[in-house]
């Protein structure tokens, strides 16, 4: 697809600006989808089912997303989230995570070590402190004070691969490493957003980040507005891929603001990817960006820069199969609903 001209880009941006002045009642006229709904990056079916079990029991979306991302955080076979995640170039596993509810309450931790569930530490930051983000040794100290236990996160396999990497020293992030069915596995994010039966939106995002990153590097996953953003009156969004690009353009917040202006979740994700391609100083052919959005009506969408981004969505029994942009590549029955695996449409 040809790169859009500056004139075309400005026309689209102006159109969104025009929508932004329409009365709020315009959005409210759309019929709501049956709730709850939950969406997660990549083929995180186990995580989504754990979240769904909370939602289908009438639980709070915030509890659901926390329970959901606990699954990859504790899975040593998920090589880029939590336990067993790839270390930095010094051989130390550092984790980033954030959580946000429908009332703009949020918490975050970055570059935290030795803690199995950083998302739960992030929630403690949100609920027990006046702050939004704690980092490094301070985040670890806070976690221990809150009763979290020290856990060794570097598994034998991760350490062996790190030692092999120190010999090759290949520091390029490959595209779509997050896919379990693709040969490489360099970095990943489990981002999850959900709306419960009472219409409350929440989201969580967690990762061990770019494999063999420079010590101290932090990506978009713990950054409110970049890797995750929630507005209870509008919607929620999360991002995966090359974190530096998501930070550069406040990806998740940009999606929600486009939904506020009247775009659907699908349209908002696509427009933000187009904007990323327009502004990035990085060669777009060398990076991936996968974006997901969910609005207050329960409608959802996803879009990517490159082909290969997949996501999963859980919908309740009785809902028709979603008419998604992209391709449904799998269906799994779960208690009270169905998980659909979707290959997202892409720009390049």
Can you describe this structure in just a few lines?
This protein is of the alpha+beta class and 348 residues long. It has helices spanning 6-20, 25-28, 45-56, 61-73, 118-128, 136-145, 156-168, 243-248, 251-260, 265-279; strands at 37-41, 95-100, 106-112, 133-135, 190-195, 201-207, 228-231, 235-241, 289-295, 300-304, 310-316, 327-334, 337-343.
CATH topology: Glutamine Phosphoribosylpyrophosphate, subunit 1, domain 1
Beta-strand percent range: 15-25%
What is the overall number of helices?
Answer: 10
Terminal-residue CA separation: 6 Å
Uncertain ranges: 13-30, 177-187
Structural class: alpha+beta
Characterization of the model:
With 348 residues, the chain is α+β, with helices and mostly antiparallel strands. The protein has a single domain (6-14, 30-343), classed as Glutamine Phosphoribosylpyrophosphate, subunit 1, domain 1. The protein is 31% helix and 23% strand. It is built from ten helices and 13 strands. It has helices at 6-20, 25-28, 45-56, 61-73, 118-128, 136-145, 156-168, 243-248, 251-260, 265-279, and strands at residues 37-41, 95-100, 106-112, 133-135, 190-195, 201-207, 228-231, 235-241, 289-295, 300-304, 310-316, 327-334, 337-343. The strands form two sheets. A nine-stranded mixed beta sheet has the order 4-3-2-6-5-1-11-13-12. The longest helix has 15 residues, at 6-20.
